Amino acid sequence: MKSYCIICDFWTEKHTGLSYCGLVLRHITIDFNLYNFILGCFLYDAETQSSNNVRMFVNEKLSSFGLNLNNSIFVVTDNENKMRAAFKDKCKKLIKKRGCEKIQNLFGNVKRIVTHVRRSHQQMKLKQKLELYSDTRFNGAFYMLNVFRNVYDDIGGILNDNYMNYLIGVDKYILEELCGFLKRFDQAIDELSEQEKPNMHKVLPIRQLLLNHCNLKSDECLELQELKIFLGERIKTAWILQDQHYMCTLLHPLLKNFDIAPNERAKAFDLVKKELLARVSSSHTIANTSSGNINTTTTTTTTNTTTSLASNDLLSFCFDRPQQKIISNSTPLNELYDYMTLDVQINECDDILSFWKANVKSFPTLSAINLKISTEQSKRRLSTIDLQPVPFVDNHSNLTSPSATKETKIIDDRDCDMNITENTDNNDEPCNIWSDF
Length: 437
Hints:
By secondary structure, this protein is an alpha+beta fold. 38% of the residues lie in helices and 10% in strands.
């Protein structure tokens, strides 16, 4: 087993106060099957839950199975500070303090009101239960703001004069625009949180889709435009694409032409070609493999008129448009060229492993390449501005992959009650809550 994914989850039993650690191993076999193996649920017996103790505990349990974490083995995590510190592996996260002051103020006012209502007995008077913000929950700001938007017209009737001042500071128009904008990010998290199927091929197109979503529109309020500029820059600097993302996208039949990100196609093609030549050259002598010496001659041209499948799925916005089919003469890279001109329509919900399993005889080398990088498709790298990969650990009860059951930690009433410890009149807010969005 050369490559695998370790998923780690910590929790505390509320009646006994004992803490436990759950470990799961995910692995893709050579016949394109994805398996989950539960390594165990272990009593956490360290004195404290410091990041060093957590990492030592996990390393000890993994070593008992002959496993270890290194630069090519990753763990999936949420934003919980202790878990990030335990698995950061000498990487530093640098965040500039940015603006978005007006939306920051709106967020702060909503948070104070929500915290107050959840602590009081006024919650039952609302048609919908308010959601507390949690910085360890992906897209936690959206959930809090969206529910608050739904009860905005009713919440004034249950607030005292002090908190009415906070409500006055919440512009309903800006709130509605903000929630509409953030909904696309929630859809992206859902799409990248698939549990049962590898989906690293979604990372590049969805990243580009979010960048496109951050483009400014003339009819938007200035506050939203300011947030779009910040998040667009944040995506570019913090969400760094790896070679595997490019290759996985090219090796998906509905994304291989890179219609969503045309400027990235050449890099992806070169990466796959390089890997293909490296594999072929191990068993054959290949002449004229430089890009200047590889020639193809078209003999037949046809047009693909297949109509795209209608869907509300987010990834369907990234799929390629129908292309001309070019049949080339035989070359050392004929397998790659034949794949690029392959006219095939698969269901967007189909497992990409099933496609390559069905076409392993037609594209044996490409299938082998896909199998290799598919072992990393159930893992996600979080990279910093200095391009250093960071192991990323996921702390949620339903154990997900980089794209696994929604990577948001579901917060129940006990979580909410534990989080209501702050002084609601405290005006100190994070420098910019959108930095970890």
